[in-house]
Amino acid sequence: MRSNIILAAAIARMASAAPAPQMFDFAAVLEAPSPSVTGPPQTAVANATSIYSVDTASLASVISSQVTSAVTASITGASASAASTELPTSSALQKRSAISTVPTTASTTTTQGQSSTLTSSSSTACPTTPEAGTYCGFINPEDPCAPQPDGYGPKVVPDTPAAFSAYPAFQANANSAVTPANYDLVFKDLNAATSANSYLGFYTLKTYDVNGCANHCDTTNLCTAFNIYIERDPSLNPTANGDSSNSTGGYCPDPSSITNYKCSLWGASIDATSATNTGQGRLNFTTVVVASNGYDKTNHTTPVAPPAYDPPKNCTGGAISAGGNYWLGSTFYPGPFNPTVCGIYAQAQVALNKQTAKAKGASCYTPVNMFNAYTIHKNGVAQGTYCSIFNTVLSPAYSGFRGAWSGNEFFGVRQSWAFSLSAQDSGNW
Ligand SMILES: *[C@@H]1O[C@H](CO)[C@@H](O)[C@H](O)[C@H]1NC(C)=O
Ligand SMILES: *[C@@H]1O[C@H](CO)[C@@H](O)[C@H](O)[C@H]1NC(C)=O
Ligand SMILES: *[C@@H]1O[C@H](CO)[C@@H](O)[C@H](O)[C@H]1NC(C)=O
Ligand SMILES: *[C@@H]1O[C@H](CO)[C@@H](O)[C@H](O)[C@H]1NC(C)=O
Ligand SMILES: *[C@@H]1O[C@H](CO)[C@@H](O)[C@H](O)[C@H]1NC(C)=O
């Protein structure tokens, strides 16, 4: 009990003592290109879904190519190893100010796009080689005025956006839904769907099946949240070639509607802030989103450690922004929360440190023994994975940075975890 009180005090002191984290690089977050897909597509709502999958090999080659300089920490060797048992209030932290004027010496901060891919899941593979110009041998839903797939929900009469929005059964679906075990309900019955960099893919469902959607999330790598909603979609692909007197080439700017149950999956926490997609116009057709519920298990999920790392420790205080004397660099990867990218970055950095030390004939190299991975949420919406690497294992008590303002945008830290190598690297050959 007593030691808990001391720890809490240490965290509080550190949080207030570190208002300007020397290691948070706004530019890295601001300049990183967003993934090209941040939510389910508006067109072709087939039960054909693309689920985010991480191509570790190509990710590793991209990250390695971006790690271009060897780095060192300002506390190294035996003194660095001792840090694992120290708290940030110890001498190591006092020395932190010494490095604050030269923060970039250890920096290898880079930005990059996603080097993971959206690949079709096996459930959507065509059973046979499809005929050219068709979709799995059927009509291509992207053709002019092609019938659109699915649409398992009721047909709303009259067929207008207003009647769809007001349809009582949809609100009843949202309001009577039971929250699946291990999830928290984070929003209910909104008229907007989630949109964020942490998008993983979507499914269409036959009913407002919250448990079915949870099951899709539970079986999808990196998924920690889902959004289920009902969408008014066009029955035909809206097209306006020619006009109503000449329909050659397709003329159906405002087809009748169908009702889709959609289930989208997310690789970071969601809340009402990220529910911003209220539907669009497609020519004269109006897409409408209703009965949108969000469920989140991010707080109940311990991320999987990359190979060679111990199970991670929860940095409940936020990001590790002290520990500057042990810090080797940081980088940011837009997309879902994926500590694997931080592990790859750590490996790429130590490989370069070794190579550089060897070339110089040095007797040791700077190891990378720990990384801190967390998500950055801009004004509440998940942006991607921020990684900081360290030459030694620091206690989670070093974590105290919860976020910072840049202009009127708040960059908040969530789900922060510390990963350390199971076998510590001494840096000696
Ligand atoms: C979508 O495809 C999966 C796998 O083929 C199937 O189990 C599911 O029933 C389909 N969903 C709908 C709504 O057709
Ligand atoms: C009908 O519309 C098509 C496609 O826009 C166009 O190519 C064709 O010339 C039009 N025919 C007539 C008779 O206007
Ligand atoms: C579609 O919208 C345009 C522009 O608002 C309008 O001129 C046209 O009459 C509409 N067509 C249909 C079929 O509703
Ligand atoms: C990690 O810590 C955060 C902040 O205290 C907490 O909300 C979350 O539930 C913890 N995660 C797990 C998996 O225990
Ligand atoms: C998760 O934990 C954080 C920190 O304790 C808290 O602010 C947030 O509201 C929690 N999320 C949910 C869905 O309960």
Automatic annotation (TrEMBL):
Give the classification, highest ranks: Eukaryota, Fungi, Dikarya, Ascomycota, Pezizomycotina
Q: Could you tell me what this protein is called? A: Uncharacterized protein
Endpoints of the signal sequence: 1-17
Amino acid composition bias (Low complexity), ranges on this chain:
97-127
What keywords does the record list, in alphabetical order? Signal
What segment(s) does the record annotate as region Disordered? 94-127
